[in-house]
Structures are given as structure tokens and as C-alpha cells.
């Protein structure tokens, strides 16, 4: 089969479209014929060697995908060749203390597609059958490749961790990203007023079409000042922050007394200045968000299948053009998810 791998860390040119052995399912496993694979910004960090995630080279990236069952291993029930499916990108052991508590993102033996295991940048994928979900009838392969790391992450951040309530005002960073475009929808579904930021007026126009109430161009406007203006000086109740660096600092300064900042990324600067005096005087809460639970992953798949959430897909590109797709993400030219089609 064909897959995209890198044998050394570096820029997009290290990605190789090459032949690798076809996977064969063992007991309890299935092979999925991938029809669409989703890109995530952390793919770029892993490829560059800056992700702080240990990888075995050569490595195949890709958290998400949608496809069909191509082969079924011994003892597998509930799946047959041709079934439309998506693999959960987090493969948990189901036996450790966090798993038994429903917190699979902290599984002691967690394996993630595209990190500890070969990912979806390939024609075929080998996974345990108990980590596979049937696609709802109305859900496309492309939507399946655009749902888990976007909607489930936004859901875990806003609903589970920040506990957004109806009537609150939420500031969402990077409207053009997968998490940003999904966060707008999740926050509106919770009854919140949404302010969002992006680096271009074109992206802000798209964000307003998704339901955002106010858009801030952080390249031409002061994010803190505009965030407070949009709330009559009070500040926002919640920030969904996944950019880092100065965007985190300016977003925190726009938070109301007693407000919350939930953080799930930091590509623009992982180490930031934090004034502890300001933090405790304003009773701000800074909340970390690692990954969603398995229940949340399954829930957002159902919501997309019912048409209650809508993945935003920027474009699709052939698997052989993975390097070009990475460059497009690095140049921040997309709005929503970029997909690869094997």
C-alpha cells in the first residue's frame, strides 16, 4: 500500500509518499481502507521534531480518518467487510484506573493514531476492533476525518472543563482552525455569545457565517481592547485559547473578574509570562485541556451524524500531496480542516 512517512525530522520536504507492507489483522483487530484523513497542526510539530512526543522513525502521521472495513481478524464481532467506520484516535487499555473512571485521555497505556501507532496518512490502517465506530448513515468519510480532534476537543474544553453556561460570553482564538471553527458551534449550541479572533477579515467573515457574534482581526486590532469593548468593558467569561504566546497573554487580559481561560494548544509560544498578582486579584482560572474522553468522542460523532454540528472542511488534497498540504497549514491559508484523500 501507499503511505506518507518521514524518516527524519525537518520541513515538509521530509514527507515521503512510499510503498509500505499491507497490514494484516490479528485476533481482535480490523483493517480499514482509509477514504479520507484529517490533518492537524500537531502533525507539523511532530514532523519538525518539536512536539515533545516520542516517535519511532520512520513514522506515519494522522489522527483521524473515515473509511471502510477491509479485513476482519479472528474473534471480531459487529464488523464486516465494507462497513463504513471511523477509528477512535485514542486507543485506551480500558482496564487502568483512569479508563475505569471514564477518563481515557489519561490511560496509563494510551496509544494514539499518528503518535504511538501508525496513523491515517495511508491507504490502510490496522486498529483494535473495539476502537472503531460505525459511521452514522448521513456522515461522510470527509466529515469523519474532521470531527474528533476538532469538535471533541472543543466540547471537552468548553462544556466539560470550562462549563460554559447560557448567556455567557466566550472568546475563541483562531477562528480559521479546526478547533476554532468547531468551538464557535459548540459555544453557540450552549447558548453563549461568541467573540472570535483571526488573522484576516476573510476568515472573520466565515466565522460570522458560522454563528460568531463579533470578530476581531488580531493583526490590525488590539485583542484585549476589542474584547473589552465588545462586553461594555466587563470582559469575557471564558476564553478558548489554543494559539499561545502573545495571543494567550492578550486574551487573558480580556477576561472578566472570575473568568476562565481553557488552554488546549500553544503553537505560537508554549512558554508565556503570567502575572500571578493579576491572576489571583481577578480570580481568573487557567484550565488545561489535554484530550477528550471516549464518551465525548463518540458523542460528537453522533451529533455530526444527526446534523447538529457541521465540520468545516477547507479543502481536500491527494495523499501524494501531503507535503503541499502541510505547507498550506503552515502558511495559515486554510479555514477549517485540510484533508488527504488516499
Structural summary, described in words:
With 342 residues, the chain is α/β, with parallel strands linked by helices. It has 2 domains: 2-146 and 312-341, Medium-chain alcohol dehydrogenases, catalytic domain (Quinone Oxidoreductase, Chain A, domain 1); 150-288, Medium-chain alcohol dehydrogenases, catalytic domain (Quinone Oxidoreductase, Chain A, domain 1, Alpha-Beta Complex), CATH 3.90.180. It is built from 11 helices and 18 strands. The strands form 4 sheets. Strands 3, 5, 6, 9, 10, 17 and 18 form a 7-stranded mixed sheet that branches. Strands 13-12-11-14-15-16 form a 6-stranded parallel sheet, with helices on both faces. Helix 4 packs across helix 5 and helix 4 packs across helix 10. The radius of gyration is 20 Å and the shape is globular. The termini are close together. The mean pLDDT is 96. Keywords: NADP.
Give me some keywords for this one:
7-stranded mixed β-sheet; Quinone Oxidoreductase, Chain A, domain 1; 27% helix; 18 strands; 6-stranded parallel β-sheet; single chain; 342 residues
Q: Roughly how many Å is the radius of gyration?
A: 20 Å
- How many DSSP H or I helices? 11
Our count of domains comes out at 2
The helicity comes to 25-40%
CATH class of the largest domain: Alpha Beta
The span between the termini is 10 Å
Coarse shape: globular
Low-confidence stretches: none
Order of helices and strands: EEEHEEEEHEEEHHEHEHEHEHEHEHEHE
Instruction: Specify the structural class.
Output: alpha/beta
* CATH superfamily grouping of the largest domain: Medium-chain alcohol dehydrogenases, catalytic domain
The total strand number stands at: 18
Q: pLDDT average, as an integer? A: 96
Q: Per CATH, which architecture of the largest domain? A: Alpha-Beta Complex
CATH topology of the largest domain: Quinone Oxidoreductase, Chain A, domain 1
In terms of DSSP E residues, the strand content is 25-35%
Largest sheet: 7 strands, mixed
